[in-house]
Design brief:
globular, TIM Barrel
């Protein structure tokens, strides 16, 4: 990617971030950067370039160096004013002083037991029913996916911005759009939802 294109992506995504800030609760970041072992081999480097106030969801999937990386991310979060969540690992989140945990939809039952332990608990959701269950469980927010077409191997058929807006209006909890969120798509959802991305963040803030 050329520097000019990255600069344009950076400006667009920062504008969408400002839109999201305006309507999200103060304790929630406008943008979550989700790590991925294959697509983000150096999440620490990316975190150092995120705008202050944004969030990182570290998904280690059992990596042997997870404690080291989580601690490095916690240090960067403290230095740069970022929000750090650890994916599906409350013990590691406690060990490094993370702000909270991001839970898979299937682990919502476990997430209930950790409610109140952390400042923030978020959960993945792939349907209206899952969003309502997350709301009833007292989660702080749900990451809904896929909203747009995604490169993720596990992504299903995208629901689209129109349906996602309907979901956001139907429920009484903050939602984040995940899946295909980038500099070109973020503005279409930032007025009523938070942003969550992998490639979109790399394109705007990566090396």
């Amino acid at each position: 990617m050329g520097l000019k294109h990255q600069a344009a992506s950076n400006r667009k995504l920062r504008a969408a971030i400002r839109q999201a800030i305006a309507h999200l609760p103060e304790h929630l970041p406008p943008l979550f950067f989700l790590t991925d072992p294959e697509r983000t081999p150096d999440p620490v480097a990316v975190a150092t370039r995120l705008p202050a106030g944004c969030g990182v969801i570290y998904r280690h999937f059992g990596a042997p160096d997870r404690a080291e990386i989580a601690l490095a991310l916690a240090d960067i979060a403290a230095e740069r004013g970022l929000c750090l969540l650890i994916g599906a690992d409350p013990e590691l989140a406690q060990a490094v002083g993370a702000h909270g945990v991001h839970w898979p939809e299937a682990q919502l039952g476990e997430a209930r037991h950790w409610r109140g332990t952390f400042a923030i608990n978020t959960v993945s959701a792939h349907s209206r029913r899952a969003i309502l269950r997350a709301q009833q469980a007292g989660m702080d927010a749900a990451l809904v996916s896929p909203v747009f077409a995604s490169k993720s191997a596990s992504a299903g058929m995208p629901i689209g911005a129109a349906r996602f807006r309907e979901l956001a209006q139907e429920v009484d909890m903050p939602l984040y759009a995940l899946g295909g969120i980038n500099a070109d798509t973020a503005a279409s959802v930032a007025e009523y939802a938070g942003l969550a991305a992998i490639e979109g963040v790399l394109a705007a803030f990566g090396s």
